Model the fold of this input.
Amino acid sequence: MTTKAYEGVYQGEKAIWLQAGRYEAVVLPEIGANLIAFRDTENEFRFLHEPTEVEMEAFKARPIIHGIPVLFPPNRYEDGKFPWKGNVYELPVNEEKTGNHLHGFVHDIPWSVEKFSADGTESRVTLALRVRDGHSVYHYLPHEFTLRLTYTLGENGLHQLISVHNEGKDAMPALIAFHTSINAPFAPNSQASDYSFK
Done:
């Protein structure tokens, strides 16, 4: 099986491309480590909702509706307040119509690429977000920690591994989710009525 992992470009953005046999995936490190594309190139399947070239500016303004963005912390917080173990974290209100905070603050900021490689059976990339005093995330979640995300592509498809490592002295909340945007229909010449989900 042919495998590759390399730095390239996706719609004008720095990207890490992974290939393993018939599968291909693309990660955008500088836009929240979003896995923006996952494809079966033999069958011409595009499993994720990918932004077109003309949609890139809208995607960058609202990256939670394409690919697999990382939500940390996920969900909505009324008035931006997140109570936890006697503390109340003040999160930015980013859903103006409700006055809520929505979906965290790591899905649109740069992550670093720790490594990428291919070995003949798999290709992989590991990205990290290190939060320390002075980081934009630290302002809302004042803890020292590292989020680490690895995507691996192999003959069975895509594997995702994420960890949250608290490097401080105090306990910290660690709520994480993914907002996977499935492309339906994802097969050429198909329509929405061809699909069922349960």
